[in-house]
Amino acid sequence: MIEVGELKNTFSGRQPLVWTKGTVDDFVHELFEPQTSQNLERGKFGRLFTAQNLALIAGFRVELTTNLADHLLFRDSDKTVMIFHHATFLSHQLGNTIFPPDFVSETLDTLALLFPQNDAASRKWYRKQGERSELDMAVLNCGSRHRRTRLEEYHYWHDRLLILKEEFDEARPTTIAQWWNDRRDGIQWYSLWIVMGLTLFFGLVQSIEGAVQVYQGMKSSGG
User: What is the value of pTM for the model shown?
Assistant: First the structure.
Protein backbone atom coordinates (compact mmCIF):
# COMPACT_ATOMS: atom_id res chain seq x y z
CA MET A 1 0.00 0.00 0.00
CA ILE A 2 3.02 2.29 -0.49
CA GLU A 3 4.05 3.17 -4.04
CA VAL A 4 7.82 2.94 -4.34
CA GLY A 5 9.94 4.01 -7.29
CA GLU A 6 9.18 5.86 -10.51
CA LEU A 7 5.62 4.98 -11.54
CA LYS A 8 4.15 5.95 -14.90
CA ASN A 9 0.87 7.82 -15.24
CA THR A 10 0.69 8.75 -11.56
CA PHE A 11 0.71 12.21 -10.02
CA SER A 12 0.23 13.13 -6.41
CA GLY A 13 2.29 16.30 -6.04
CA ARG A 14 5.19 14.69 -4.14
CA GLN A 15 8.57 13.32 -5.11
CA PRO A 16 8.71 9.59 -5.98
CA LEU A 17 9.82 7.33 -3.13
CA VAL A 18 13.04 5.52 -3.91
CA TRP A 19 14.24 2.64 -1.72
CA THR A 20 17.95 2.12 -2.34
CA LYS A 21 19.34 0.78 0.92
CA GLY A 22 18.46 -0.74 4.28
CA THR A 23 15.61 -3.04 5.22
CA VAL A 24 11.96 -2.45 4.41
CA ASP A 25 11.42 -1.65 8.10
CA ASP A 26 14.13 1.02 7.93
CA PHE A 27 12.57 2.48 4.79
CA VAL A 28 9.06 2.68 6.26
CA HIS A 29 10.25 4.10 9.60
CA GLU A 30 12.25 6.78 7.80
CA LEU A 31 9.30 7.60 5.53
CA PHE A 32 6.88 8.05 8.41
CA GLU A 33 9.02 9.88 10.91
CA PRO A 34 7.15 11.54 13.81
CA GLN A 35 7.58 15.12 14.88
CA THR A 36 8.81 15.92 18.35
CA SER A 37 6.28 17.40 20.75
CA GLN A 38 7.95 20.82 21.00
CA ASN A 39 7.51 21.39 17.24
CA LEU A 40 3.76 20.74 17.20
CA GLU A 41 1.22 23.45 16.48
CA ARG A 42 -1.81 23.46 18.74
CA GLY A 43 -5.46 23.63 17.73
CA LYS A 44 -8.79 21.84 17.80
CA PHE A 45 -10.68 20.32 14.91
CA GLY A 46 -14.29 21.44 14.72
CA ARG A 47 -17.15 19.04 14.03
CA LEU A 48 -17.39 20.35 10.46
CA PHE A 49 -13.87 19.16 9.63
CA THR A 50 -14.93 16.06 7.67
CA ALA A 51 -14.07 14.62 4.28
CA GLN A 52 -17.52 15.49 3.01
CA ASN A 53 -17.23 19.12 4.09
CA LEU A 54 -13.78 19.50 2.59
CA ALA A 55 -15.60 19.03 -0.71
CA LEU A 56 -19.01 20.49 0.13
CA ILE A 57 -17.94 23.64 1.97
CA ALA A 58 -14.35 24.35 0.95
CA GLY A 59 -14.78 23.16 -2.64
CA PHE A 60 -11.76 20.82 -2.49
CA ARG A 61 -11.49 17.86 -4.78
CA VAL A 62 -11.26 14.78 -2.55
CA GLU A 63 -9.34 11.93 -4.16
CA LEU A 64 -9.41 8.52 -2.49
CA THR A 65 -6.05 6.78 -2.81
CA THR A 66 -4.58 3.33 -2.30
CA ASN A 67 -1.17 4.83 -1.56
CA LEU A 68 -0.58 5.33 2.16
CA ALA A 69 2.29 7.74 1.48
CA ASP A 70 -0.18 10.18 -0.14
CA HIS A 71 -2.59 10.25 2.81
CA LEU A 72 -3.74 13.81 3.66
CA LEU A 73 -1.52 15.32 0.97
CA PHE A 74 -2.95 18.63 -0.23
CA ARG A 75 -2.23 19.83 -3.75
CA ASP A 76 -2.67 23.60 -3.84
CA SER A 77 -2.50 23.80 -7.64
CA ASP A 78 -5.91 22.17 -8.09
CA LYS A 79 -7.17 22.15 -4.47
CA THR A 80 -7.04 18.36 -4.22
CA VAL A 81 -6.72 16.42 -0.97
CA MET A 82 -5.72 12.75 -1.01
CA ILE A 83 -7.25 10.37 1.54
CA PHE A 84 -6.06 6.80 2.14
CA HIS A 85 -9.38 5.19 3.04
CA HIS A 86 -8.48 1.51 3.48
CA ALA A 87 -9.39 1.16 7.15
CA THR A 88 -9.58 -2.65 6.93
CA PHE A 89 -5.95 -2.84 5.85
CA LEU A 90 -4.89 -0.52 8.66
CA SER A 91 -6.83 -2.49 11.26
CA HIS A 92 -4.94 -5.62 10.27
CA GLN A 93 -1.61 -3.78 10.69
CA LEU A 94 -2.12 -2.83 14.34
CA GLY A 95 0.91 -4.21 16.14
CA ASN A 96 2.88 -4.77 12.93
CA THR A 97 6.42 -3.58 13.69
CA ILE A 98 7.11 -2.70 10.07
CA PHE A 99 5.35 0.56 10.92
CA PRO A 100 6.58 2.98 13.61
CA PRO A 101 4.93 2.78 17.07
CA ASP A 102 1.40 4.24 17.17
CA PHE A 103 1.55 5.12 13.45
CA VAL A 104 -1.29 2.83 12.38
CA SER A 105 -3.46 3.84 15.34
CA GLU A 106 -2.91 7.52 14.57
CA THR A 107 -3.76 6.98 10.91
CA LEU A 108 -7.03 5.30 11.88
CA ASP A 109 -7.77 8.30 14.09
CA THR A 110 -7.40 10.63 11.10
CA LEU A 111 -10.06 8.55 9.36
CA ALA A 112 -12.27 8.75 12.45
CA LEU A 113 -11.87 12.52 12.22
CA LEU A 114 -12.76 12.71 8.54
CA PHE A 115 -15.55 10.10 8.62
CA PRO A 116 -17.45 10.61 11.90
CA GLN A 117 -19.23 7.62 13.39
CA ASN A 118 -22.99 7.47 12.69
CA ASP A 119 -22.84 10.56 10.49
CA ALA A 120 -25.50 9.84 7.86
CA ALA A 121 -24.31 12.65 5.57
CA SER A 122 -20.72 11.38 5.50
CA ARG A 123 -21.92 7.82 4.93
CA LYS A 124 -24.09 8.89 2.00
CA TRP A 125 -21.30 11.02 0.51
CA TYR A 126 -18.68 8.27 0.77
CA ARG A 127 -20.88 5.75 -1.00
CA LYS A 128 -21.01 8.07 -4.00
CA GLN A 129 -17.21 8.24 -4.35
CA GLY A 130 -16.82 5.03 -6.35
CA GLU A 131 -18.03 1.54 -7.06
CA ARG A 132 -18.83 -0.58 -4.00
CA SER A 133 -15.87 -2.86 -4.82
CA GLU A 134 -13.52 0.15 -4.72
CA LEU A 135 -14.67 1.42 -1.33
CA ASP A 136 -13.87 0.20 2.17
CA MET A 137 -17.02 0.60 4.23
CA ALA A 138 -15.00 -0.04 7.39
CA VAL A 139 -13.79 3.56 7.13
CA LEU A 140 -17.25 4.61 8.32
CA ASN A 141 -16.79 2.72 11.59
CA CYS A 142 -13.47 4.23 12.68
CA GLY A 143 -15.36 6.73 14.82
CA SER A 144 -15.95 4.08 17.45
CA ARG A 145 -12.32 4.63 18.44
CA HIS A 146 -11.15 7.26 20.93
CA ARG A 147 -10.73 10.09 18.45
CA ARG A 148 -7.88 12.58 18.63
CA THR A 149 -9.57 15.91 18.10
CA ARG A 150 -6.61 18.18 18.78
CA LEU A 151 -3.87 18.93 16.27
CA GLU A 152 -1.05 18.47 18.77
CA GLU A 153 -2.17 14.87 19.39
CA TYR A 154 -0.97 13.92 15.92
CA HIS A 155 2.76 13.35 15.47
CA TYR A 156 2.99 11.52 12.14
CA TRP A 157 0.29 13.38 10.22
CA HIS A 158 0.60 16.71 12.07
CA ASP A 159 2.03 18.81 9.23
CA ARG A 160 -0.42 17.62 6.61
CA LEU A 161 -3.36 18.05 8.98
CA LEU A 162 -2.14 21.55 9.83
CA ILE A 163 -2.04 22.54 6.14
CA LEU A 164 -5.42 20.98 5.51
CA LYS A 165 -6.99 22.67 8.55
CA GLU A 166 -5.60 26.07 7.57
CA GLU A 167 -6.80 25.69 3.99
CA PHE A 168 -10.24 24.61 5.19
CA ASP A 169 -10.53 27.43 7.72
CA GLU A 170 -9.47 30.03 5.14
CA ALA A 171 -11.65 28.72 2.29
CA ARG A 172 -14.63 30.93 1.46
CA PRO A 173 -17.78 29.75 -0.30
CA THR A 174 -18.14 30.61 -3.98
CA THR A 175 -21.44 28.89 -4.81
CA ILE A 176 -24.95 28.98 -3.32
CA ALA A 177 -24.59 25.37 -2.17
CA GLN A 178 -21.33 26.16 -0.39
CA TRP A 179 -22.88 29.23 1.27
CA TRP A 180 -25.81 27.12 2.46
CA ASN A 181 -23.63 24.38 3.95
CA ASP A 182 -20.96 26.63 5.45
CA ARG A 183 -21.94 26.92 9.12
CA ARG A 184 -18.44 27.36 10.54
CA ASP A 185 -19.55 30.77 11.81
CA GLY A 186 -23.10 30.19 13.02
CA ILE A 187 -23.93 33.87 13.69
CA GLN A 188 -22.65 34.94 10.29
CA TRP A 189 -24.57 32.11 8.59
CA TYR A 190 -27.90 33.02 10.21
CA SER A 191 -27.34 36.74 9.59
CA LEU A 192 -26.57 36.11 5.93
CA TRP A 193 -29.68 34.03 5.27
CA ILE A 194 -31.93 36.36 7.26
CA VAL A 195 -30.72 39.28 5.13
CA MET A 196 -31.16 37.26 1.93
CA GLY A 197 -34.62 36.13 3.05
CA LEU A 198 -35.71 39.70 3.80
CA THR A 199 -34.24 40.88 0.51
CA LEU A 200 -36.20 38.26 -1.41
CA PHE A 201 -39.36 39.01 0.58
CA PHE A 202 -39.27 42.77 -0.03
CA GLY A 203 -38.32 42.18 -3.64
CA LEU A 204 -41.37 39.95 -4.04
CA VAL A 205 -43.60 42.55 -2.34
CA GLN A 206 -42.33 45.26 -4.68
CA SER A 207 -42.91 43.01 -7.69
CA ILE A 208 -46.49 42.34 -6.58
CA GLU A 209 -47.10 46.05 -5.96
CA GLY A 210 -45.72 46.86 -9.39
CA ALA A 211 -47.93 44.26 -11.02
CA VAL A 212 -51.00 45.59 -9.19
CA GLN A 213 -50.22 49.14 -10.28
CA VAL A 214 -49.81 48.05 -13.89
CA TYR A 215 -53.09 46.12 -13.73
CA GLN A 216 -54.90 49.07 -12.21
CA GLY A 217 -53.42 51.40 -14.82
CA MET A 218 -54.54 49.11 -17.66
CA LYS A 219 -57.98 48.78 -16.09
CA SER A 220 -58.30 52.55 -15.76
CA SER A 221 -57.24 53.09 -19.38
CA GLY A 222 -59.73 50.51 -20.55
CA GLY A 223 -62.53 52.22 -18.58
Answer: 0.76
Burial 99-130 (b: 16+ CB within 10 A, else e): bbeebbbbbbbbbbbbbbeebeebbebbeebe
High-pLDDT (> 90) share of the chain, %: 52
Burial-class residue 60 by CB neighbours within 10 Å (0-12, 13-18, 19+).
Answer: buried
Q: Does some domain include residue 6?
A: no
Phi, psi for residue 75 in degrees, rounded to 5: -100, 110
28 touches 92 (CB < 8 A): no
Which of 173, 193, 211 is the C-terminal boundary of a domain? 173
* Helix or strand run (H / E) with residue 180: helix 176-181
Do residues 154 and 192 share a domain? Answer: no
> Which of the listed ranges 29-33, 197-201, 207-211, 212-216 does the model predict with the highest average pLDDT?
29-33
Q: C-alpha dihedral over 195, 196, 202, 203, to 10 degrees?
A: 150
- Which residue did the predictor score with more confidence, 204 or 150? 150
| C-alpha to C-alpha distance for 114 and 46, rounded to whole angstroms | 11
Give the residue, 165 or 199, on which the prediction is more confident: 165
120 in the same domain as 50: yes
For 68, the domain range is 24-173
Give yes or no: residues 127 and 203 share one domain: no
